Amino acid sequence: MPVAFLDTNVFLRHLLQDHQNQSPRATAYFAQIEGGEIQVQISDTVIFETVFTLERTYKQSKRRIREILLPLIDLPGIVLPSKGRMRQAFDFYVDKNISFADALHASVALSFNLKEIVTFDRGFNRVPGIRRVEP
Q: Tens of pLDDT along 19-60?
């Protein structure tokens, strides 16, 4: 059973190592998660906000973001009901070069067995299994 909900800023401080006080504490917390000492709950919005901040504020590449975030998401001590959808979203984000929001939307639609997305966004044309329909 998770002990707490883990917020975005703990991910960021750990990944960026940019704060003299908070970064070592965040890394120590992730070490406890990795060591099986604690279990935490996160949500899609935590991952979304982390991706958005890494990409927009810290100018990290899509590939690098996937490379550093997926191993954390995959930790057994990270409880995220949508881990499979999240992996697929990262693949769409990097491999199909679409925004993370759109990648997540496509992954969610496919998880609901929906094959159409009503949108004006042509980026969805690159997602296999999705048919873009304009209203």
A: 999 999 999 999 999 999 999 999 999 999 999 999 999 999
* CA distances in angstroms from 68 to 16, 47, 65, 106, 131, listed in the order given: 10, 12, 5, 22, 30
Within 8 A by CB and 6+ apart from 7, the residues are 46
Q: Inform me whether the pLDDT recorded for 1 exceeds 90.
A: no
Per domain, the residue ranges of the chain are 1-81, 82-135
Per-residue pLDDT at 3 exceeds 90:
no
**CA 81/CA 97 separation, integer angstroms:** 25
Q: How far is it, in rounded angstroms, from Cα 129 to Cα 135?
A: 19
The b/e string for 67-101 (b: 16+ C-beta within 10 A; e otherwise) is: ebbeebbebebbbbebeebbebbbebbbebebbbe
Quote the CA–CA distance of 5 and 79 in Å, as a whole number.
Answer: 9
